[in-house]
Amino acid sequence: MNAAPSVIVLACLLAWSAPAIAGAQEPVAGPAYVGADACQSCHQAIFTSWSQTKHARTISRLSKEQKEGGECIRCHVTGSPEQIARELGNPSQPNVQCEACHGPGSLHAADATVRTGIKKVPAASTCEGCHNDKSPKFHGFAYAAMVSFSHPVRK
C-alpha cells in the first residue's frame, strides 16, 4: 500500500487546522469611522459647504437627557450603531458628518482610490433612516429635492 495519499491527507488536515491550533487570526480590518476632518483635506469645498448646514450642528438640538437616552442621539451623531450606543452622551463624532451618509471612510482616507465602504451618492433610504415620522420635527421629506442642499458645491 502506498503511504503517499495518507501523507497528503494529513498535510491538508494540518494546514486546515493550523489557524485554530495557533489561536484566532487577526480579523481583516474593514472601514472605520474617522470623522469629517479626515475628509476635509481632499474635499475642502464640500466640507466648507457641509459645515454651514444644520447637519454640522445637529448635536446642539438635543437636551442632555436626549443625548444620554439613546433613541434620539443615533440621528444626531456619526458612527456605527454599536459605537453610538457605547458613547451615548459623550459622542466622539458629534453631528451628522460625512460618514453618516457616505459610510465609514478610513480606507478611503488612507488611499483615495479605495472606495470600500463609501457610497458616493447615498440612497434615499439612508436619509430616511432619520428623516422620518419618528422624528418629533418631521414635516415630510423629499429626497430628490433635498440632495442639492447637502452638497451645493460638488467636487
Summarize the structure.
The chain is an all-alpha fold. It is 43% helix and 0% strand. Mean pLDDT is 82; it is low at 5-26.
Explain how this protein is built:
The protein is mostly helical and 155 residues long. The chain has one domain (37-150). It is built from 9 helices and no strands. The chain has helices at 4-22, 37-40, 44-51, 64-69, 81-87, 98-102, 106-110, 124-128, 143-150. The protein is globular, with a radius of gyration of 22 Å. The N and C termini lie far apart (70 Å). Mean pLDDT is 82; it is low at 5-26.
The geometry reads as globular
How many separate domains make up the residues? Answer: 1
Structural class: mainly alpha
Radius of gyration: 22 Å
Question: What's the helical proportion of residues?
Answer: 40-55%
Weakly predicted, low-confidence segments:
5-26
Summarize the biggest pleated sheet: none
Number of strands: 0
* Count of DSSP H/I helices: 9
Q: What sequence of helices (H) and strands (E) makes up the elements?
A: HHHHHHHHH
Overall residue-averaged pLDDT value: 82
Percent of sequence in beta strands: under 5%
Kindly report how far apart the N and C termini lie. Answer: 70 Å
